[in-house]
Amino acid sequence: MANLRDVTDQVRTQDALRLSGALHQAMVETADEGIVVAGQDGTTRYANPAMARLLGIPAERLYGSDPVSLLIPGAPDGGWRQEVAYAHPDGCDRILQVTRSPLGREVADGLGSLVMVADVTERRRSERALRRRALYEPLTGLPNRYLVLDRLEMAAARQARSGGSTAVLFLDLDRFKPVNDTHGHQAGDELLRQVAARLTGAVRATDTVGRHGGDEFVIICEDLDEGAAVSVAARIHAALRAPFELTTGSVEVGGSIGVALSPPYDVDDLVRQADVAMYHAKGQGGGRSAVAHPDGAQSR
Asked: In the sheet where 111-119 sits, what is the strand order?
């Protein structure tokens, strides 16, 4: 009976090994990730069907080739993980996550590494879309107030490190409410989109144009003195002067602009000071600019 039990245990072990091998093979063959076993020279000894599909290369071409060098020329030895842009033969670029894990020299047949490739294109696109929704205003596509404040913090850091100056222009549209009342909210949204486009075209590519809310916009300009900041405000007034052609008809709006600079103010106080100066400009009849000064705003 002891011998019988020994044989039974051996058979069970062999069956378990065969089942384990079959399961591992099935998992590798049906995996969504590309899997390559490479030799010490980096060339492919085994590639699953997903690898050929991800790279858009016939499976037979993978054998004898070095998939890591194809994806990452000059890739380092050892284990690592890296994302790369891959020009797929179908014409659609992909973002591939490549992982290389050494198998060790003691592995039979001189196998050198395990290479796994995953297509993370849609995941990264979704992440970018989420970040954009969190930081950009959906109607105009401009930075929202949170991103504007972040840009101001960056400007403050650069100014503290290298000197210079920072200007904030706070714009409130004149005669915007009558557009909403007469033409409807959809026309108002259309107008805000057109205003955003004109503002972006009136400033430097390095400046930040953000929507503060409603019909208010904030423009951040670095390395400008008062005269240059007032010139930016003048360009904005000129950009708003032409009528806006909406689907419901032509409308005209202007803007009241408050300007604040650091120095003399702290960068984190510029939006508030520019807002106060804007109300001074609007109180003067609108369609003009006012510069914040410690002794009182001055119209320009």
From this structure: 44-47, 34-39, 111-119, 93-102, 80-87
Tens digits of residue pLDDT in 145-174: 999 999 999 999 999 999 999 999 999 999
What whole-number distance in Å separates Cα of residue 289 and Cα of residue 300? 5
Q: List all residues 6 or more positions away from 65 whose beta carbon is below 8 Å from its beta carbon.
A: 43, 44
CATH no. for 136-299: 3.30.70.270
- Which residues are registered as beta bridge partners of 154? none
Residues 210-222, mean pLDDT to the nearest whole number: 95
Q: DSSP letters of 100-136?
A: EEE--TTSGGGEEEEEEEEE-HHHHHHHHHHHHHHHB
Tell me the sheet residues that pair with 80: 100
**Known catalytic membership, residue 15:** no
- Structure confidence at residue 127 (pLDDT): 86
Cα 136-137-142 angle, rounded to 5 deg: 70
- pLDDT tens-digit map of 83-115: 999 999 998 899 999 999 988 654 445 568 899
Domain spanning 14-125, CATH architecture: 2-Layer Sandwich (3.30)
Q: Is there a cis peptide before residue 76, judged by omega within 30 degrees of 0?
A: no
pTM above 0.70?
no
Domain locations in the chain? Answer: 14-125, 136-299
Neighbours of 208 (CB within 10 A): 22
The total of other beta-carbon atoms located within 10 Å of residue 101's CB is: 13
Q: Is-contact 170 216, C-beta < 8 A?
A: yes
Task: Please tell me which residue in 172, 215, 268, 269 is annotated as part of the active site.
Answer: 215
Question: Which residue is it, tokens 């076993």?
Answer: 37
Alpha-carbon distance 102 to 120, whole Å? 23
**Tokens matching residue 50:** 């997903």
